[in-house]
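Margin note from the TA: students keep mixing up input and output lines. Inputs are the sequences; the output is the structure of the whole complex. Example:
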Amino acid sequence: MDMKVGKKKLGLKEKYQHMTRGLGWETTYQSMDDVFPFVKYEGIKIHDWDKWEDPFRLTMDAYWKYQAEKERKLYAIIDAYAQNNGHLNVTDARYLNAIKLFLNGISPLEYMAHRGFAMTGRQFPGVGARVACLMQSLDEIRHAQTQIHSLSNYNKYYNGFHEYRHMLERVWYLSVPRSFFDDAVTAGPFEFMVAIGFSFEYVLTNLLFVPFVSGAAYNGDMGTMTFGFSAQSDEARHMTLGLEVIKFVLEQDPDNLPIVQQWIDKWTWRGYRVLTLVGMMMDYMLPKRIMSWKEAWEVYFEENGGALFKDLARYGIRPPKWLDQIEQDKDHISHQAWATFYNYAAACNFHTWIPTDDELDWLSQKYPNSFDKYYRPRLEHWREEAKKGNRFYNKTLPMLCQTCQIPMIFTEPGDPTQICYREVDYKDNKYHFCSDGCKEIFEHEPEKYIQAWLPVHQIYQGNCFEEGVDPTAEGFDPLSAVLDYYHLAQGRDNLDFEGSEDQKNFEAWRGMATKNAA
Amino acid sequence: MGVAAIKEYSFESADRLENFHGNQLLYIGWDQHLLFCSPFCLPFPPNMRFGDIIDKVLPGVFGYHPDFAKIDWSKVEWLKSSQPWQPDFNKTLAELGLKHKDVLRFRTPGLTGIKGSAS
């Protein structure tokens, strides 16, 4: 009897077709609008999802194989690093504070990105976009996990790594990265894609990952370097997706342009504000510097970003707003940020310090227009006072920007001696901002930002103490109560690096590795 | 103005006056003294005398700065919402018309911060 036997294997093209586009269908029991309820309300018009060009040409079965291979290599290196006490090879113990900043401030954002892309993928009716979002969602959870695994090795020996999850929702400065991402995931699917997929992953990502990963390489931190490299091939895919989204949306309907432009303006500014933390890390926290924040901004934003926006001009997109201010700020923001953490070192989960003489000279040389004039006298004064046993710990809570939630530390464009104040009256309340950018973002969606959980105001409302604590009791110490709420141990996790447990332990353990016992 | 949303989107301010247990917030910044990285946020009852803030609160807030002891308060220039403003030290916040989340700046002519650096 003759039986027709089908081909055993699908060709690549067929397989791709079946495993991406072939996975979707027009629903009939329920209307497509009910199945995809978030896809229209932002005002973006999509006429033909089939015009979507899949940026990866990757199917899920191949995806798992690639990723499994990356994981095997990564964990082999991380295990070796841990077993050989690799942590003792970092340049000096001050470096650990850079990765505390990373674990506490950045890794939880990877997890939020996972959630965001899962949500976005669910909402897109186009299958190509949906599969791409699914893969990025899985990448992001992998990044969160590999970072947590790599850095957990440091948690065995050093302070400040112990409760990043808990602290993200509580510690004052972590409300900056947290609120940035909360803003994105509470937007609609298209805004999320422009916010994270394009503005963050495409325009700004090099300014986040290159400094940390190169910083790790320069400072002997093989563990961090390895998860950075493992993530890098995923990042290339993410950048392609971010760019594809912009082009697809703009090609679909001319009405989409002003909406997308406003999102690019908003999210470039929001992302730039978060990157203040990276600028500070590069200029102050790496014992062995890679390049200055200003140099990184010039290479990765002004040159690379400039070329990108030139390319997007044919879609009608112009460069993001407020670039003239950013251009002036690059001489200042890293110094202003470090001064802030130096001020509030008592309420922080990493240590700060005054740079050494060599490091001060490096800063003078990298910032000839600003450092000696505005910042060096401040640091030297603090150093003198600390020598006299009068290290400055600012105990009064700062005024925060309603939008970016950073303390109002930034100065007027063109006047580095004057704090920039902006305010808006909205429905019988006053709101304050650090900049024109943050003010305009608020004015566009005030109902969203009036809900902001500003750590300083929450402390004054009595919401940042552990249960059962009575702020009206005699002898109540608010700072100590807030540290309890943060799960920070006074004198161990906070304060100056000089005299810290990390400093002493690192010195003792490295001594055991390099010297004979006395 | 507003938010793109799938249904009505309206919320109360998280920082409205009644959430502060009888206090109102006052922000105070000292211009050209960036040793303090940002202006401060302080809660006060509306019947607080303004002079008491100067005498009893600000020393704890700004006293670390070597310029603080040199301030001649009769010559200080005040700004409210960045506009010139004249306080009467004997009046309360309410009597001075200071509302929740108002922002004051003060300038101390002749005092220019650490080595004249506005720090």
